[in-house]
Design a protein that fits this description.
230 residues, alpha+beta, Nucleoside Triphosphate Pyrophosphohydrolase, nine-stranded mixed beta sheet, 12 strands, Nudix hydrolase domain-containing protein, hydrolase, coenzyme A diphosphatase activity
């Protein structure tokens, strides 16, 4: 077993332990209660490629969507009142968007949440797909134009990467763009919140910092570390 596989196994064991001792959620309407209308979850679904490297499943959003049309994204969406927690949201949305059966995904960990400029709290959930052959992609054409995958480690490398300095509430930060060509020759640009989440996910899994200056926005909300992104 490789060091990365051991790392994922440890993260998964720790996550299950945390879930077993997790205190009950705060009552609805309290200051710390999660708002279903202002909360979303995304799934960083990893699997082992033919060459043994970890890869992550990504989508290209439909060009007909009202928000971020045509952008590369991770499967996910807004939390429903019926969802038990953020993990439930991420898995449900992945099934609805790309046809991924939740039973195929072993949740490894949940990253610190992010707050975008519209005030939406986004929770990244890392999951491991043990058998990629068991997954038959079925994109929801109303939301997803394409499904593809990319190596997770690329988000730690200073290759085919661009950056742009932005400012928000007086704080300067870097917006990262990763250019990627899929096996079918199609080219994608992975940027903004999606790129930021994947940098964090790769850093968590590989236990090392990226080979470039990350410089995330310096914005925090009560209840955990958060980053504002476009």
């Amino acid at each position: 077993m490789s060091s990365v596989e051991l790392r994922l196994q440890t993260l998964a064991q720790n996550f299950r332990l945390e879930q077993s001792v997790k205190s009950p959620p705060p009552p609805t309407g309290s200051a710390t209660s999660a708002s279903t209308t202002k909360r979303a979850a995304i799934l960083v679904c990893l699997f082992k490629g033919d060459d043994g490297e970890l890869r992550v499943i990504l989508t290209k959003r439909s060009s007909s969507l009202s928000s971020n049309p045509g952008d590369v994204a991770l499967p996910g969406g807004k939390r429903d009142e019926a969802d038990a927690d953020d993990v439930d949201t991420a898995l449900r949305e992945a099934k609805e968007e790309i046809g991924l059966d939740p039973s195929l995904v072993n949740v490894v960990t949940v990253l610190d949440h992010i707050v975008n400029k519209r005030g939406m709290t986004v929770v990244p959930v890392i999951g491991l797909l043990s058998d990629i052959k068991a997954f038959s992609p079925a994109p929801n054409v109303a939301e997803v134009e394409a499904i593809f995958d990319a190596p997770l480690e690329m988000f730690l490398k200073d290759e085919k990467r661009r950056e742009e300095e932005r400012e928000w509430m007086g704080d300067k930060y870097l917006l990262h763009y990763f250019d990627f060509e899929a096996d079918d020759g199609k080219e994608y640009v992975i940027w903004a919140l999606t790129a930021g989440v994947l940098i964090k996910a790769a850093s968590t899994v590989y236990e090392r910092s990226p080979a470039f200056l990350e410089q995330s926005p310096k914005f925090w909300v009560s209840g955990g570390a958060s980053t504002t992104m476009p």
